[in-house]
Amino acid sequence: MDRIQAMQIFTRVAEAGSFVRAAETLSLPASTVTSTIKSLEKYLQVRLFNRTTRRVSLTPEGVQYLAQCREILSLIEHSESSLMDSAKRPQGRLRVDMPSGIAHFIVMPNLKDFYRLYPDIYLMIGVSDRQVDLVQEGVDCVIRTGELNDSTLVARPLGRFRWVTCASPEYLRENGIPQSPEELSQHQAVHYFSGQTRRANEMRFLHGTKTLSVPVNGKAAVNETGLYIKMCIDGFGLAQLAEGIVSEHLQEGRLIEVLADWQPPSVPVTLLYPHQRFLSPAVRAFADWVAELIQTVNLAK
Fold first, then answer.
1. For residues 66-94, b (16+ Cβ closer than 10 Å) or e, as one string?
2. CA distances from 28 to 24, 31, 33 (A)
3. Which residue, 40, 77, 93, 161, has most beta carbons within 10 Å?
4. Nearest CA among 194, 220, 201, 197 for reference residue 100
């Protein structure tokens, strides 16, 4: 048994959660993947996966072995790449995940610049405002906004987004401009819900050292940034958004900032990837590029 290949196959099955999907991504027969895992389990004398008809999941021993395999494979990759020409361009497939607002309004407008720098990287861009599981979903790195609650990942801070409270001109003509958070009881908001603990019907404000959470009525809630922005532009109510994401709408008058003296608390932006001693050249290239890109938008000081 080729133990290095067995580790690679085991890692891919763990990330894909499926023998069949792992075989497809490795361009191997499913029977080869299955027999390799059986041989590996026999060699180690432990069960690495719990198997059902629909999915496979790691046993506690499998979770421990996965972390060790990633470390070993990363060391091998680093050793090999260090012997290559230092001018060789990063290449290969790279799976990244990010919130839809960052994807649509920050990354996509600049994506051609990324490919001019790194034409040999094949990007798989996952767009979701939910928090993905990097290990289970086979994601190389993610961009997240907000406070972090996962200490198992390496975090690279990218800055902080300044947030604004805004509404469409149409909404403000019909409902008036709020002058203080207390007046929000007479207004409507577009609500945003997610897996985080913050209540969807609240707006948060920071005035000096004072933090205030204000419930605001609304007729709808969404969990996707693009739809959240559209509903605000269409006059469904007030919204709180990252200024860097809606800067064009603010400049062109489709949205108007209100309550400027009561800004929402700034939100951290972070790049996350699994613990490993060495990053692949593709991950490092994307990390450096997106870090510089995020710094060009309107971040909180």
1. beebbeeebeeeeeeeeeeeeeeebeeeb
2. 6, 8, 7
3. 161
4. 194
- Both tokens of 90, joined, read 């990063």
Tell me the per-residue pLDDT of 30-87, one tens digit each, with 9 for 90 and over: 999 999 999 999 999 999 999 887 778 999 999 999 999 998 998 888 777 666 544 4
C-alpha to C-alpha distance for 67 and 76, rounded to whole angstroms: 15
CATH number of 163-258: 3.40.190.10
Q: Which SS3 state, helix, strand or coil, does residue 1 take?
A: coil
- Phi–psi pair at 14, nearest 5 degrees: -60, -40
CATH number for the domain formed by residue range(s) 92-157+269-296: 3.40.190.10
Domain(s) labelled CATH 3.40.190.10 in the chain stretch across: 92-157+269-296, 163-258
Start-to-end CA span in the chain (Å): 55
